[in-house]
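4.2 Preliminary Data

To establish feasibility before requesting continued support, the project team ran the inverse folding procedure on a target of 87 residues. The structure was first converted into the token representation described in Section 3, and no sequence information of any kind was made available to the design step. The complete token record follows.
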């Protein structure tokens, strides 16, 4: 049983390392546009939350103010004061 738990934790860790996470440090909710190679997603991120937004190269754009950033696997992106930056 403990081997299975260890395996699942390792799998989760690898999955998170191979994805882009976005943390909103503002209290405001932001509407987002996430574009990948051939697809695009409209979504939102509430204040003071973190989410996985893509699993490969992508561009994240805040629809509220037009700020955008390019990200790749393993990047941790932060929204603070309405701006996007890599952590």
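Position-by-position output of the design step:
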């Amino acid at each position: 049983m403990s081997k299975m738990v260890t395996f699942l934790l390792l799998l989760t860790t690898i999955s998170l390392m191979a994805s882009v996470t976005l943390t909103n440090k503002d209290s405001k909710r932001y509407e987002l546009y996430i574009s990948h190679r051939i697809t695009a997603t409209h979504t939102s991120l509430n204040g003071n939350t973190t989410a996985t937004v893509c699993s490969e190269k992508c561009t994240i754009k805040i629809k509220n103010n037009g700020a955008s950033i390019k990200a790749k696997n393993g990047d941790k992106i932060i929204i603070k004061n309405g701006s996007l930056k890599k952590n």
